[in-house]
Amino acid sequence: MSIPFGGAKGGIICDPSKMSNGEIGENDTTVTSNLLDVFGPERDIPAPDMNTNEQTMAWIMDTYSMHMRRNETAVVTGKPSILGGSLGRREATGRGVMIVSISALNKLGINPKHATAVVQGFGNVGSVSAKLLSEQGVKIIGLSDINGALYNKDGFNLPDVIEFADKNGTILGYPRAEVITNEELLELDCDLLVPAAKEDQITSHNANKLKCRIIAEGANGPTSAKADPILQEKGILVIPDILANAGG
Fold first, then answer.
1. Rounded Cα distance, 155 and 152, in Å
2. Buried b (16+ CB within 10 A) or exposed e, 114-139
3. For the chain, which domains are there?
4. Closest Cα to residue 102, out of 188, 194, 185, 186?
5. More exposed terminus of the chain, fewer Cβ within 10 Å: N or C?
6. pLDDT at 203
7. Is 7's pLDDT higher than 70?
8. Strands of 116-120's sheet in order across
9. Helix (H, G, I), strand (E, B), or coil: what is residue 157?
10. Rounded to two decimals, what is the model's pTM?
């Protein structure tokens, strides 16, 4: 991407759903204090991922700035715009997934307006990817979140599903869909599959059963190393995570 963002993935082992905001903030502060030699604008720039948001990034920036004795906005991305964050940052990863997916469809001679897609995961990346792909005319026939998966052969109305998820905390229970398993979701016949949930979802055990033409890796490492040669043999075009989700 030709930008000085380095590093890897890290996390705190906890269940944020059972913690107060104060406890989550305290965790953030402790971790940041312990990683002062790792974090830095020219070294490693933390970004939001699972169970984190703008507030999480604000705590990291605040703690880092206190230790550096200057306001260091460039230490994190995904912070609130009032603290110097970029407008559109929350949607950036999903928008990047959409851009590379449309490009890949066109490369294979598939008209996006006649294409079908399945999106695994309905967090920040999955929900935005699905919504923006549908705005390009792609029919989203499969969706999932941590609670389960849904199928609608006629395609989902994404603004409607997002409104339902915001209200209920899950897509499960959405009325205009059929409930399926996560395994069935990944194996649906479609043009584009966007795994935007966790790592190692496509493995040597299920790669042979996939019926998509393109995989756009919205998540980090959703395809295992052993699955890669199987997908290559099947002629499935894989857009690797280092490109597909680099918009964020």
1. 5
2. ebbbbbbbbbbbbbbbbbbbbeeebb
3. 16-83 (3.40.50.10860), 89-244 (3.40.50.720)
4. 194
5. N
6. 97
7. no
8. 178-180, 148-151, 139-145, 116-120, 192-195, 214-216, 237-239
9. coil
10. 0.88
